[in-house]
Amino acid sequence: MVTVLSIASISYGDLSYSIPEETKIGFVIGNIAEDVGIVQRAISTRKARLNIVGSRKRYCKINSESGNLIVAERIDREQLCGPKTSCFLNFEMVLENPLELHRITVHIKDINDNSPMFATDIIKFEISESADKGARFAVGEAHDADIGVNDVQSYSLQTNEHFLFEMHSDSGGGKYGELVLEKELDREQQQEVKLILTATDGGIPQRSGTVVILVTVLDANDNVPVFSQAVYRASLPENRPVGTEVVSVSATDADEGANGHVTYDFVRISDEVSKLFALDQTTGAIVLCSSLDFEEEISYDLKVQAKDGSGLVSFSSVIVEVIDVNDNAPQIFVQSDTHYISENAPPGTEVGIINLQDKDSGANGQVHFSIQSNVPFKLNPSIKNYYSLVTTAELDRELVPQYNITITAADEGTPPLSSAKTIHLILSDVNDNPPEFEELSYSAFVTENNKPGTSICSVTARDPDFRQNGTVFYFLVSSEVQGVLLSSFLSINGDTGVIRAVASFDYEKFRSFTFQVLARDSGSPPLSSNVTVHIFITDENDNSPQILYPAPEDKSFMTEVVPKAVLSGSLVSKVIAVDADSGQNAWLSYQIVKSTDPGLFTIGVHSGEIRARRDISESDSTKQNLIISVKDNGNPPLSTTCTVFLIISDDLADVPELKDMPYEQSSSNLTSYLIIALVSVTTLFMSFIILIFAVRYCRRGKPRPIFDGAVAIPSGYLPKNYAEFDGTLRSSCNYDAYLTTGSRTSDFKFLSSYNENTMLTDQTLKMNTNCPIGKSELCPGVVEESVEFPETAQSVALDQHSVRVCHCTYLVWEEQNGIEMVEIARFVAGSI
Ligand SMILES: *[C@@H]1O[C@H](CO)[C@@H](O)[C@H](O)[C@H]1NC(C)=O
Ligand SMILES: *[C@@H]1O[C@H](CO)[C@@H](O)[C@H](O)[C@H]1NC(C)=O
Ligand SMILES: *[C@@H]1O[C@H](CO)[C@@H](O)[C@H](O)[C@H]1NC(C)=O
């Protein structure tokens, strides 16, 4: 250690030295002896003593041998002088022999043996983050026990972004500093700032001391809430139930406490949207509070705000996309209102315009349609989703008066939705159907002597057209019947088709006639058709039998001469009568009502032949008168009587009256045959009619007693020599046909027995049921002959039903001798 000694020579005995503090013990400050100017030995000999002024401690001493002043104790300037800038140790040296007093001053110089020190280890600041730039915060100064240059000379602050350090000197030379806010603090970034401040002195070597400055940043509401996303997106199928959470927004606020408490709300939201969505103010969850409809709105843009406790807000938006769900069935609109179409509209006629719509989009809105297959209509695509409904075939109102056309539309969604619509289409009428008669032809039977005005029959024609197009009126087609206008016989009711007789008919004048009835509708132009009506006049018993022989109108008596030798059974005479009526009405029976000798003669009931009952004897009167009644079988019967005079004699001269009366047997026979044949067949015919009644009533299980007698058909009356022919006729009809085997055969024989078992049975009638009436079928077997009336028919009313009998009457003309009659009866049972 180098010590700079500064020896200040103090006048007369004052000595001054200078040493640094903390010099080590034993260090020679100076040689006193030399400095005082005495010999070295004098120090000891003169008993040099060193006294310190004002201190208990000595600090220095004098080496008596060498006369050196040496450091005796540790000298600490700071202890000795504190902050005083100059520090001295004052000694007085006393010498004896002679007493001499010398003042010795030792200047203690400072050395840098103390470091700067702060009052505390840590300096705490609390600074609000809102503090402005430039704000100052005083920091307590550091102290250094050393003085002068060894005292605190500078401060240095740890490098940081927020603070600077600025040093100031006070009047006492103390140096202190301030923290200057260079950049604002942010609590949210850094809650506290820890800095080290170093104070440095100027000594050599330099010493320093540090302190920690702890700055706690106090919060200020300087942060707005921040949303986690700038835009929130959510997709939601439109059929989501109410209450579904759409999305949850969240915002954070870096501030503390109320400054950081965030609440949420919608901003500028329309009433409609506010009914759809609800926002939870505290959680930020957005829920659905009413059903969405893609078809109304496909997306929503919601503005939301987040607000902290002191009102700082920030905004975000929520975009809710609505996803389409197939929730709308296709709709079918029928554009045209006219649902009428004329039945004669050609195929391809447009009936209506159909519009298909589906509110859904994409596949959910793709619509396919179909039309029911059983109607003659189809849909033709037109513009976009418009279709025209057209006909595909001819229409007929009379077949199908209206159509219900069902159109079905379905979309392509999963599952697909469909809907249907029915178009009610009414066909309007066109007069395209002529009236049509219910039957091909009509036949009616009217009994002669009818009252004028009697209804005979009625014709009906149907016309399926509508209203007047189908309203039928009837007219008689004018014609003539035997030279007389038809209208003088018949009239027709134009509305009902009922045909009435205007005049009375006479069977004996004409038996049938045919005319046509025209049916015409009221369309424009009208359509018409006609039908043939056959009227058959049936006989009534209005003619009495007429006696041909013996001629009643001849006033001269006709007398038959009977030989005396007549045996029993011999033919003696014959009554011949005719009846203008036909059938039963002309079936004559003969009866002797009075005779001279009742036992002698008998008359054939139907032949009119008068025969002897027994052999004539001599005793019998020669003049015999017979009164004979001829009665027809009508109801009531009509009869005539005649008288036959018989003279029993072998001599013609006895009978003068007979001379001019030739009797032609053959001609008489022919007439008889004719009558017999007529009678027989008529009987047969009537029998069948009666039988048919009987059968009908038997079937009902209520046989009427009135027919008990009527069914007693004397089929035994049929001529025996009529050969029955059968099997050659069509099997569908059962003909009971009788034919005379020979012409002009006089020998008619009648079966006398009356046999009920020969009645026709039910079986026969059944077989007849297929026989059609009104067809001109020739009865086979007689075709070679000239046929005059192929067919006639008769009808008999029975309650509301009636029975038809077709009745073929063939008149066969023979060249010479007049008529031979063949009658074939055909029977049909059935109801009209
Ligand atoms: C069509 O529908 C109507 C009622 O909707 C019904 O009265 C009519 O009978 C139907 N017509 C056909 C042909 O089905
Ligand atoms: C009858 O038919 C004609 C066409 O022939 C038509 O114009 C008219 O409307 C029809 N009348 C009715 C009532 O349908
Ligand atoms: C009756 O109809 C036929 C064909 O059906 C026809 O030829 C005839 O002219 C018609 N007669 C009258 C009078 O209309």
What's the helix and strand layout?
Blueprint: E1 8-10, E2 14-20, E3 28-31, H1 32-36, H2 42-45, E4 49-52, E5 60-62, E6 68-71, H3 77-81, E7 88-95, E8 100-109, E9 122-128, E10 136-139, E11 152-157, E12 163-169, E13 175-181, E14 192-201, E15 208-218, E16 226-227, E17 231-237, E18 245-248, E19 251-252, E20 263-267, H4 271-276, E21 277-279, E22 285-288, E23 299-307, E24 313-323, E25 331-334, E26 340-342, E27 350-357, E28 367-371, E29 377-381, E30 386-391, E31 402-411, E32 418-428, E33 436-437, E34 441-447, E35 455-458, E36 461-462, E37 472-477, E38 480-481, E39 484-485, E40 490-492, E41 498-501, E42 512-521, E43 528-538, E44 546-549, E45 559-562, E46 571-574, E47 576-578, E48 589-595, E49 601-603, E50 609-612, E51 623-631, E52 639-648, H5 665-699, H6 706-710, E53 722-725, E54 735-740, H7 762-767, E55 792-798, E56 801-814, E57 818-828
Parallel strand pairs: 2-8, 9-15, 17-24, 26-32, 34-43, 45-52
Antiparallel strand pairs: 1-2, 3-6, 4-7, 5-6, 7-8, 10-13, 11-14, 12-13, 14-15, 16-19, 18-22, 20-23, 21-22, 23-24, 25-27, 27-30, 28-31, 29-30, 31-32, 33-36, 35-41, 37-42, 38-39, 40-41, 42-43, 44-47, 46-50, 48-51, 49-50, 51-52, 53-54, 54-57, 55-56, 56-57
Bound molecules: 2-acetamido-2-deoxy-beta-D-glucopyranose (NAG) (3 copies).
One 2-acetamido-2-deoxy-beta-D-glucopyranose is lined by residues 428-431, 466-469, 523.
Pfam families: Cadherin (PF00028), Cadherin_2 (PF08266), Cadherin_C_2 (PF16492)
GO cellular component, one term: plasma membrane
Transmembrane segments: 673-695
